[in-house]
Design brief:
The protein is mainly alpha-helical. It has three helices and two strands, in the order H-E-H-H-E.
């Protein structure tokens, strides 16, 4: 009987070790996932806010007129219009009065 109880004790001890190892592995995996999501999120850090200039489209404004007013020196107006479109997820070149555009 003594060997049976010793065997049972070792088996329980081994099962307890496996359970502990499984819990530690799971916790480590969760921590790694949180770190990976944080690192690869691609967002701007909370302390360093990116400030973009915005413009409210007025009656009669076009992307060309807005781009002409805010065009940085040495930049081609066509590429600047393309950047405005991509920054604001515009499918075409139509803008509407009251629409807010973020300028690159």
């Amino acid at each position: 009987m003594k060997t049976l109880s010793g065997f049972t004790y070792r088996r329980r001890l081994q099962a307890k070790k496996q359970k502990t190892l499984c819990r530690i592995s799971g916790l480590l995996l969760i921590c790694l996932l949180v770190v990976a999501i944080t690192v690869f999120n691609g967002g701007v850090a909370a302390g360093s806010k990116e400030v973009r200039q915005t413009v409210i489209v007025a009656e009669g404004d076009t992307l060309w007129s807005i781009a002409g007013r805010f065009l940085p020196d040495g930049t081609d107006i066509r590429s600047y219009i393309s950047m405005i479109r991509s920054h604001n997820n515009l499918a075409g070149t139509l803008v509407y009065p009251g629409q807010i555009l973020a300028l690159p």
